[in-house]
Structure formats: structure tokens, C-alpha cells
Specification:
The protein is built from 17 helices and eleven strands. By secondary structure, the chain is mostly helical. The radius of gyration is 44 Å and the shape is extended. It comes from Trametes pubescens (White-rot fungus). This is SAP domain-containing protein. InterPro entries: SAP_dom, SAP_dom_sf.
């Protein structure tokens, strides 16, 4: 193939300038001379979009940066054999195999099959997971184990000789002619009258096996029926128990076993005014079961009718629940408490902070109790020892004042330092807009006690904000993404503060030469620098202790992790330092060896 250079892009190429010689598009190929017209293009004049246009016109890939595109053009320009693709016809669609369904619908397909026959079968490997694969042959050891198991089963289920009797009787039936049941009147063979199945050649042993299996099936069916009936009875008893508990709560004169006494610190109310509910809460006490997310009704046998507060017993008393109205309501409301079992209370106290949510399909009685539609009790004069009955609920936890007007599907509880707060999850506000950039001391106080976020009348400390705004509680979907970075910065500063005895000692370290306290950003920068220095020192210590080989057996594989099913070794200083600190904390022998090494170097 010969080429004729016709520079169309640049009439006169400049010296020492890189150029590309490419074939012109749209030309016809001379079959005799096979000459091609070409054009010369200067590389410096080409932009990325020009390179992509040229590559597209020549049928080359167009992805990549400028260096990759230029390299493709250079390779194409230096290999004229690739230019022949410009004069070849485009590839057409290849006809696939003729399936049976296609052959039945197409006349042409049927004609092809009739003329050329079916497609020749091809030998292919079977898939690894296929139902047609043959089972592996049984070895003599496996056969012996299976025979022993069958013998044990037959010995237990069959009277007499077990498997040996079955074998003997089978041989006996083979030698003797088959005995058939015949009808004396007609002389014809009949089957088993109970099962309706003919028993040609069926011996007594076979009948025994069939009878045992039939009896076993009846026992299994009976057991299932009994369990089903017991489940229904249990559900009905639970429903009756719930109704009776609610009725007992609504009664103005509760039974003695459900009576409880007001504490010695009584509250006086006017005699002319009935003892009514608080505007934002109830005086009816609930108890949340520590083992369930909902609060079921159940009678409590630990309530005694006495004129004094209940004395402490061997059982562990669960923390009291807070009313929905908040501190102001709790201050004017006598609390009701009861003893709880130690195991239940321990399970409840182990979840701090925690919450409880009522199910959507709560019973009508529970819904009415939560909405505050139950009866009220008459007034109790000051100093009186008359008893007021709280809700007779499960004795697993302590008392809780019912919130007023909260739908059951929105009711949740939060454990704030031993106080159970009831609130409506739909009323949780957005994260507060607060800043401690210029007053870090206020952050130290409000981290443990704050009023910026109020839930159910109670101020929530900043350290618990994550509970309300993280996705796992399903209260706010994307609120934690807004305050996560800010909250983590506050947490770092508070953790640094807890390393010192007081604020004064802290500010002695985090102050400028003039004595002014550093702001939030300056403290964060210094903390980050300290972390980087500690990571460098710990990483160097780990490498020194293990001789720059973190894959040794003494490392207990602390510095190794798996990524894409490939075991790799930690490379970042931060990761090595973190694993080194974990190794020293969990393996005292390594910590002692490192201490001895440091002592030897110091000596």
C-alpha cells in the first residue's frame, strides 16, 4: 500500500513539531495502485475533543485523558495496516441457533431443519450444581454403619428378634407360597379391611412395621393438636388477664391485693376539688416489662396495703419512671413504686440509655389508658394514709406515670440516669443550633446537664443527643448527618477535659502566653497534633519490638486484615499504632516484654 501525502490540516509543517499522518476519510480505494490519500496534523493544535472526534471517525476507543488519546492516535498513525478497516464492510448480525419453539413458528426454520437436519449435539461439561449428577458410591464402611443403624431402629420398633426376625420371615415367605386373605363366601382375594390396601405377600412383620408407623403418625398428629390448643388457651388467658387488669385499674375501690400506699411525703389538695389528672400527664402508674418492647398489663402481687412506704427487701428495686410532663409534674405528683425481682430489674438497668415502643396493634384498653380516658380518684387530704391503686402491671419494673394523648405507635421511653422519660417521637425537635467555640467551659457543664434539647419536659445532656438523632432509633432520618461532625469535636474536647482534675488544670495547658484560653479550633488542632505524635511513637515502638516484621507469629495477627479475600498487613501509622495499643492492653506478656526492653535501653 502506498500513500500520497496531501497536507490538508497544515500546509507547511513547522520544523521540530510533532505531527501525525492519518488517512483521509471518505476516499475510495484504487484496486490497482492501492494508493491512499493522507493528511498531516500537528499535535500541538489538537484538543481533547478533536482527538476524540478523530478516534471516533477511525473506529478507535475514545475514553481516557489527553495522554491516552494521543498515544492511540500515534499507534494508529504508525501502523498503516490498520487503515484497511476503513474499506471493510460493517459486520452484520450473526444468526443464532434454531430452537424448537422458533422452528415451530417459522416456515424458514422448519425448511432449514428439514434440509440440513438438527444441530449436531455438543459434548459439554456438566455444571457443578446439577440435579442430574450421580451420587458417590457407598463404601463398605458406610454400608456397615447404615446397616447397624437400621438394626437398632428395628430392634426398638419390632417385637421379637428385630431385624433378624424380619430377615427370617422374609426368607420364609420366599420359600412358601404366598398366603392370601380370601373371602369364605366367594373365595376371592381381599385386602386389609382397615386400610383398604391389598396385602399380597405381606407377612406379619411387615404388618407390624406398618402398624407402628401408623401409630407413630397418630401420636405426632395428636401432639401437634394438643400444642395448638394450648397456644390458643394461653392467648385467651392472656387476653382475659389484660381485661381484668384494666377493669381493676378503672375501679374506684380496688381489691386489697392491688392496693399501694402513698409515701410519707404526701401532697395536699383542696377538699372541694376532685383529685384530677395533671394537664400534661396522668397519675396512673404503668410498669414496662424489661424483657419486651411493649408494656403489657399484668397484676402485681408485691403491692401491700400499709400506711408506710414499702421497706427495702432482698429483691432489687428497678429505677422509677418519669412522667411525660417532666420535672415540674414530678415535683407535684406523689410517686408510686413497687418491688421488682432482681433478675428483671437487672435486665432493665443494664440498658442505659434505652427506650420502649408500643406496638401499632395495641389493645383498645391499653390505648384508652394511654389517652388518659380512665377514671380519676377522689381527693386525698394531707397526711391521710388512704391508698390509691396504681395500674396492676408487671412487677418486672418500677412505676411510670402515663403520658396524656400520645398515640401508642409514637410512644417511646428514654432512660435518663435512672429516670424513665415517656415522649412522643414525632415531637422531637431538630438538632439545636448551639456553638461553644468561645466558651469551652460551658461545653463541659452542658455535656452532662443541658437544656438546649428538651424531651418530655426534661433537658437532655449533649452526651445523649446521639440517641435521639441516630438512624437506629427511627426518630429522625438524616438529623445525625448534620451534627455528627460537631458532636464528635465536642466529644474529643470533653474526653481531653476528663484527663485533668479540674478546669483550672486544663486551662494551664491550653492557654496562650498571655494567659487567654484557647478557642475550640485551637484546642482541636493541638489535640490532632498530639494524636499524630502519639501514633508515630506507638507505630515506631511496634516496628522496633517486632523487628520491622508485623507478620511474625508473636503479633497474634493483630496487624493483619483481610481485604477482597486477600490477607494484607497494616501500612498506615494510625492503624499500626491503634493495633499496638490493643495488643499491649490484651496481652500483658507483650507489655512486660516491651517494658523490659525499654528499661534495658535506658540502663
Amino acid at each position: 500500500m502506498t500513500t500520497t501525502n496531501t497536507p490538508t490540516e497544515t500546509s507547511r509543517p513547522e520544523p521540530n513539531v510533532e505531527t501525525l499522518t492519518l488517512p483521509e476519510l471518505g476516499q475510495s480505494l484504487n484496486k490497482v495502485t492501492r494508493d491512499l490519500k493522507t493528511k498531516t496534523i500537528q499535535v500541538k493544535d489538537l484538543r481533547v475533543k478533536d482527538m476524540k472526534a478523530l478516534l471516533k471517525s477511525y473506529g478507535r476507543p475514545m475514553s481516557g485523558k489527553r495522554e491516552i488519546l494521543l498515544r492511540r492516535l500515534q499507534e494508529y498513525a504508525s501502523d498503516p495496516e490498520q487503515w484497511n478497516d476503513l474499506f471493510r464492510p460493517a459486520k452484520g448480525h450473526e444468526r443464532g441457533d434454531i430452537s424448537e419453539r422458533r422452528a415451530g413458528k417459522s416456515h424458514a426454520a422448519r425448511k432449514i431443519i428439514a434440509q440440513f437436519g438438527d444441530k449436531a449435539p455438543q459434548t459439554e461439561f456438566l455444571p457443578k450444581k446439577s440435579g442430574t449428577r450421580a451420587a458417590p458410591p457407598l463404601t463398605e464402611a458406610v454400608k456397615a454403619v447404615n446397616n447397624a443403624w437400621v438394626k437398632k431402629v428395628l430392634d426398638r420398633s419390632l417385637p421379637g428378634g428385630g431385624m433378624q426376625s424380619v430377615v427370617d420371615k422374609t426368607e420364609e415367605h420366599r420359600e412358601q407360597p404366598e398366603q392370601m386373605n380370601t373371602d369364605p363366601s366367594t373365595g376371592t382375594t381381599v385386602g386389609d379391611r382397615e386400610t383398604g390396601v391389598q396385602t399380597y405377600g405381606m407377612g406379619k412383620a411387615d404388618k407390624g412395621i406398618t402398624g407402628v408407623r401408623r401409630l407413630e403418625k397418630r401420636v405426632v398428629d395428636l401432639n401437634r393438636g394438643v400444642l395448638s390448643e394450648l397456644g390458643e388457651v394461653k392467648a385467651q388467658l392472656h387476653s382475659m388477664h389484660t381485661v381484668m387488669s384494666a377493669i381493676g385499674q378503672m375501679s374506684p375501690h380496688p381489691p386489697p391485693q392491688f392496693q399501694a400506699t402513698l409515701p410519707s411525703r404526701s401532697v395536699s389538695y383542696p377538699e372541694t376539688t376532685p383529685f384530677s389528672r395533671h394537664p400534661t400527664g396522668n397519675l396512673y402508674a404503668l410498669r414496662a416489662s424489661s424483657g419486651s418492647a411493649c408494656i403489657p398489663f399484668a397484676p402485681s402481687s408485691n403491692m401491700a396495703h400499709t400506711s408506710h412506704a414499702p421497706q427495702a427487701s432482698n429483691s432489687f428495686a428497678a429505677p422509677s419512671f418519669a412522667a411525660h410532663a417532666g420535672p415540674s409534674f414530678a415535683a407535684h405528683t406523689p410517686s408510686f413504686s413497687a418491688h421488682a425481682s432482681s433478675s428483671s430489674a437487672h435486665a432493665s438497668s443494664s440498658r442505659s440509655p434505652s427506650y420502649y415502643a408500643f406496638p401499632d396493634n395495641a389493645s383498645p384498653l391499653l390505648s384508652s389508658a394511654l389517652s388518659g380516658s380512665l377514671m380519676t380518684y377522689p381527693a386525698t387530704p394531707e397526711g391521710s394514709s388512704a391508698s390509691i391503686m396504681p395500674s396492676p402491671l408487671s412487677a418486672a419494673t418500677s412505676a411510670l406515670a402515663l403520658p396524656h394523648g400520645i398515640p401508642t405507635k409514637n410512644l417511646m421511653f428514654f432512660d435518663l440516669d435512672g429516670v424513665r422519660i415517656a415522649f412522643d417521637k414525632t415531637t422531637v425537635p431538630n438538632p439545636p443550633q448551639v456553638s461553644f467555640a468561645d466558651d469551652i467551659s460551658r461545653l463541659f457543664r452542658e455535656w452532662h446537664q443541658s437544656e438546649h434539647l428538651t424531651i418530655g419536659g426534661w433537658g437532655i445532656p449533649i452526651k445523649h443527643w446521639g440517641w435521639f438523632y441516630k438512624k437506629r432509633t427511627h426518630i429522625k432520618s438524616h438529623a445525625w448527618d448534620v451534627i455528627r461532625a460537631k458532636w464528635n469535636k465536642w466529644k474529643s474536647i470533653v474526653e481531653e477535659r476528663e484527663r485533668f482534675a479540674s478546669d483550672t488544670v486544663l486551662w494551664e495547658k491550653y492557654s496562650d502566653p498571655s494567659g487567654a484560653h484557647l478557642n475550640q479550633q485551637a484546642i482541636l488542632v493541638r489535640l490532632q497534633n498530639n494524636r499524630e505524635a502519639d501514633n508515630k511513637w506507638d507505630a515506631a515502638a511496634a516496628l522496633k519490638f517486632f523487628g520491622n516484621d508485623l507478620t511474625r507469629q508473636e503479633t497474634h495477627q493483630y496487624f493483619m486484615y483481610r481485604k477482597r479475600n486477600i490477607v494484607e498487613v497494616c501500612q498506615k501509622l494510625e492503624a499500626i499504632a491503634r493495633k499496638w495499643r490493643e495488643l499491649l492492653a490484651e496481652h500483658p506478656e507483650i507489655a512486660q516484654a516491651w517494658a523490659r526492653m525499654q528499661a534495658e535501653e535506658t540502663a
